[in-house]
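Before going further, learn to read the protein records used in this course. The integers have meaning only within a learned vocabulary of local backbone shapes. To see the layout at work, look at the sequence and tokens printed below.
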Amino acid sequence: MIEQWRLRAAFAERLSRMYGREVPAYTTLVDVSREVNEDVLRKRGTDAERLGSIGRVTAERHGAIRVGTPEELRQVARVFGALGMHPVGFYDLRDTAASALPIVSTAFRPVDEEELARNPFRVFTSMLTVSDPRFFDDDLRPRLTAFLAGRELFPPELLALADRAEAERELSDADAERFLELAVRAFELSAEPIDEDWYASLERVSAVAADIGGVRSTHINHLTPRVLDIDELYRRMTELGIEMIDTVQGPPHWAGPDVLLRQTSFRALAEPRALRAADGSVRRGALRVRFGEVEARGIALTRDGRVLYDRLLGLVDERSASRPAAERDAVARAVWAEHLPPTEHGLAARGLGFFTYHAVPDRPADGGRPPADLGGLLDGGWLRAEPIVYEDFLPRSAAGIFQSNLSDTGSRNSGREGSAYDSDTLAEAMGRDVLDPFVLYERQRDRSFALLPRALRPTRAPLPKGAS
């Protein structure tokens, strides 16, 4: 019998092979990521594995897919449920970029520490907001709804196997092989000709809308390896002649601890596609919808840490508004140095970052009683803090990646009121809860507190609000 985590690992590996065949530059990205990771490991030793073993980092992937309707979202949740992956977080990208992005998203991933250590595969999954009148008017909306209702993304056999795997948490060897075959095939790029006029009508709204609703299938939009030095990877990919987007999205590269998530990508490639004209003839064309993303993960920030992070983004925007774009990174580094603690110890003591806490067994006895607050326990060497890796995504960064790979801004009627979408909307569509990532990190931290000797459990919280 094949357990869920082995199914997940096999699916991620097969998906990676398939995507590498379809997008050869992705294979180059994976190879360069591996080389950078090996170099960082040689240079920094065990410190390079502070945010995950090199085995985990090298095998780590996140994918991205797009669906059109609540029913399609429910079905894809069943497929990922078979792999022990749960919807975590809600991301509304509709107002986070200048380009029209009519999508809301969640991310399917494992949630238990042991499952994440075994294989942390994630899939950022976006759903088209068909009912939002800012993007789809009264003429286009019913046509789009009818088109989406007439397609089948996931065959019944795949969904039946997925339900069995989720219920029993395993499949027989034969059923596992069939499930993997069908699941990978569901995310391949279809060779079916695309209705050129229909695709163009959606593309005028948004290239993302056309990629979702202009075709009769779904596909992997990008597949992302994890790298330990994303700035070095960016430099090496550029030297190889691969066109990268203009920047690394997310926090700046600075002298302090890595936090949250940094992402970049090579630009969307013109891929050959068959296009059907109004007269029924089929010609060879090209579409730019898929790109190669790479990520570097840091420490998860607490609720107070995220409030501070958002405030710092606003400061960077404000201070760099009248400066050349090339100076933005320098501005961001200065803001980070001004407001964020320069060490992991400081992040933990001020309650800005998530860590697990462990008693220091060989602390020299000094006859004193341990302090009651977390900062004092850390300062006095009673506890050590181990960082918790950020496993999720950033709406502004995701939108920045998408926007950087679009050739047109599309159209959005900002004079109309947008439709309401939230995590409850997605939960109702899927028939399963959308988990709060903060709650998951808090549980992991609090479990470590519960394992401490009673005398070393902090009774006073670290500094509130994470103010500078």
Summary: The first helix runs from residue 4 to 22.
